[in-house]
Every structure is written in structure tokens, then in C-alpha cells.
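Hi support team,

I submitted a single chain yesterday and got back a structure, but I'm not sure I'm reading the C-alpha cell output correctly. Could someone confirm the output below corresponds to the sequence I sent? I've pasted both exactly as they appear in my results page.

Thanks,
R.
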Amino acid sequence: MKNLLGKWVVAETMQFNEEKCALEWAKVEDILSKGDLDRETAMLLNTVVIFQEGGTIDFLCPLPDGVSQDEIDAALAAGQLKLKDGMMMMDAKHWKEENGKILTDTGARGEVLGEQVGPWVELKEVDDDMVEMMMYRLKKAE
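Hi R., thanks for writing in. Yes, this is the structure output for that exact sequence:
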């Protein structure tokens, strides 16, 4: 696996193709160009994922349009918002290397259809430029 450390952006995501009645990969720029997305979906597609030494992953989203500095300051003061690199810190997860594979913590635990589900899933290398993490394909930003 290439050097995972650093910033990654969402390049593709799984979308339902109604004509084919199947899920398929769609490029983020194609989805965003349609312009009919709700605000939350657009924010998710603009997520920046930062893999750090020590096994942490930060998920950052841009601040929503129209949010004033006063609203940001109030949310920060109330502990409702964390900022990093000028973006909202949405979540922090973990990654680890095990048996030559990179695993990421999905947070899922428990049972699905009668089978135990653990939190760790393999991060798959798509090509020299891209990795696959659940429903997203990430491309190295720097």
C-alpha cells in the first residue's frame, strides 16, 4: 500500500443507477455538477479525510454556506463544533496495519443477520492514486 498518511478527498461514491437497478461508482464532480443535491449530500461529497500517524483518521467537511462568524464562534464556545484547517471536524476514527493489510474502524459493532460484525474493514487499493473505504473512493490530495 502506498503512503496513506495525509489528506485525501472523495473522488467517487456508490450511487443507485435506476436504469440498471444496481449500485455503481459515480464521480463526485459529475454528481456535484447536477446541482440538485441537498446540502448534507453536497457537504459529504466535499469531505476531506486525513490519515495521521498513530492510527487516527479525521473527517472534515466545509462549513455550510451562509453561516456567519458569530454562529461559528457561538457553536465553538458551546462545544458543538470543532474546527481543523478551517473545516468542521465531523468525526474521528482509527486505522491500523494488520497482516499486511490496512484496516479502518467503521464503528459498527454487534450483530447483522445473526452474524457478529466487527468494526474493522479492509481499506482497498483501487490503483496508484485511489483507495476504497466503504462507499467512497478517496484520491490523495497532497
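A quick pointer for reading it: The chain has a mean pLDDT of 88. Let us know if anything else looks off.

Best,
Support desk
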